[in-house]
Amino acid sequence: MQRLKLFIPLLVFVALAAMFFGVERRVQRGEYAPTDLPSALVNRPLPAFSLPALDDGRTLTNSDIQGEWFLLNVWATWCPTCHYEHPFLVALADQGVKIVSVDYKDNAKAAQRWLAEKGNPYVATLFDEAGDFGLDLGVTGAPETYLVDAAGIVRFRYQGALDQAIWGREFAPLIAGLAAPSAELSQ
């Protein structure tokens, strides 16, 4: 019996390795995406908020950002993936995409400095220092981006960095169904 106990770690390792390779094969076949986490907000209204704007501290609410579709991007200066994503967001804003951001659990001065240095693609930045609005959104980590329609309904959530490939595959088809401000956005 003592000899059998010696094989328990080996059996556990083999079982974990089999699970790992099974998931890896599903990812390669496109059956599983680790960033596809379900969101209870899809097809529901954006949670109500009242948060200070990062730039001037004025209080912003849902009514300040509704009226046309927009992206709601959750980011922070402590997030390395947000640094990768940021130039693409600047390019989207240059094309006329309305992006509202949530600076999530961050330092206001560091965030202001970061936007001054890297460019500010956002029409407004909500400062969520405690992360309460992030909890209401169901944020699991930064960056996360939500597509919100003109009525304030969340239509899609993406976890991870946006780039041209993800934009074209995930966002552009959905935006084509919304009232897009320009034809170049659906490309």
From TrEMBL:
GO terms for molecular function: disulfide oxidoreductase activity. Keywords: Cytochrome c-type biogenesis, Disulfide bond, Redox-active center. NCBIfam families: dsbE (TIGR00385). GO terms for cellular component: outer membrane-bounded periplasmic space; plasma membrane. It is found in: Cell inner membrane. Belongs to the thioredoxin family. DsbE subfamily. This is Cytochrome c biogenesis protein CcmG/thiol:disulfide interchange protein DsbE. InterPro entries: Periplasmic_diS_OxRdtase_DsbE (IPR004799), Redoxin (IPR013740), Thioredoxin-like_sf (IPR036249), Thioredoxin_CS (IPR017937), Thioredoxin_domain (IPR013766), Thioredoxin_ResA/DsbE_sf (IPR050553). GO terms for biological process: cytochrome complex assembly. It is a single-pass membrane protein. SUPFAM superfamilies: Thioredoxin-like. Residues 40-180 form the Thioredoxin domain.
